């Protein structure tokens, strides 16, 4: 990715080396403001997708007022509500200091996601609100609770922040065989995809719904949520490609990463066998498919795993 010299986001909070700093949530849970409304253009608008998702959830959740979604979801009490993209590792790395170049890269990719999603939301008459991205090492406290670097990258809807452990990229490369800067960009874009889901009401609803579900059902819906985040990452890559800053092989790096962190591949690697009922992020093939899907068209309407066979 030709990222050097491009704009870097101011929304990166560097908490490396602080080992779990006081990272108090601003706004608190349940303050989600959903930018609903605006003009509706041709094709399937973002609002339409939201409505489809709401309908879907509504059918499955008797007794839940869908309007609650619009009023703001919030955190799941006790459940944390964070969307964790677990590395599956027990150890979290040594907390080796990451280079400033890594921070610059992360800040640049985040800036690219800001520009892209601002444009996509604007086209739908909506306002995109930038997430923060916290770089940390060791432990971190988020509005979703404590997390260690072993948890892998995650997004916390309660404080609207992406949390990225600085050793994860090394782990991605060395343990998961997913190398290349665009593999890393994909990880960031996936987490930002969860932020988009938060802004559009999908994530709050999911967090609310899964409390009333059995494990298997919750896992299935988790896969749908994750595949949509992959698809959103693909949409971002689509527009990034149009800027002419993707290099040959970049998309292959992202697709390979999606392959390496698929539930089946990870389980095979970690424990030697797979337990499909426990899948909660999607198989390697599913993750690749949805990433490629978003990348190919750049359309949000193609990112609806809630109403499309996955
Ligand atoms: Zn995820």
Main attributes of the structure:
single chain, 310 residues, alpha/beta, five-stranded mixed β-sheet, two-stranded antiparallel sheet, 7 strands, 9% strand, binds zinc ion
How would you describe this structure to a colleague?
45% of the residues lie in helices and 9% in strands. The chain is an alpha/beta fold. It has a 5-stranded mixed sheet, covered by helices on one side. It has a two-stranded antiparallel ribbon with strand order 4-5. A hairpin with a 4-residue loop joins β6 (154-156) and β7 (161-165). Mean pLDDT is 82; it is low at 20-44, 55-79 and 88-97.
**Gross morphology:** globular
Going by helix content, strand content and strand pairing, the class is alpha/beta
Q: Tally the helices: what do you get?
A: 10
Strand line-up in the sheet with most strands: 1-3-7-6-2
* Helix content range: 40-55%
Run of helices and strands: EHHEHEEEEEHHHHHHH
> Which segments are poorly predicted (pLDDT under 50) over 5 or more consecutive residues?
20-44, 55-79, 88-97
Outline the biggest β-sheet.
Answer: 5 strands, mixed
End-to-end C-alpha gap: 29 Å
Mean pLDDT: 82
β-sheet strand percentage: 5-15%
**How large, in whole angstroms, is the Cα Rg?**
18 Å
List cofactors, ions and other ligands. Answer: zinc ion
Q: Tell me how many strands there are.
A: 7
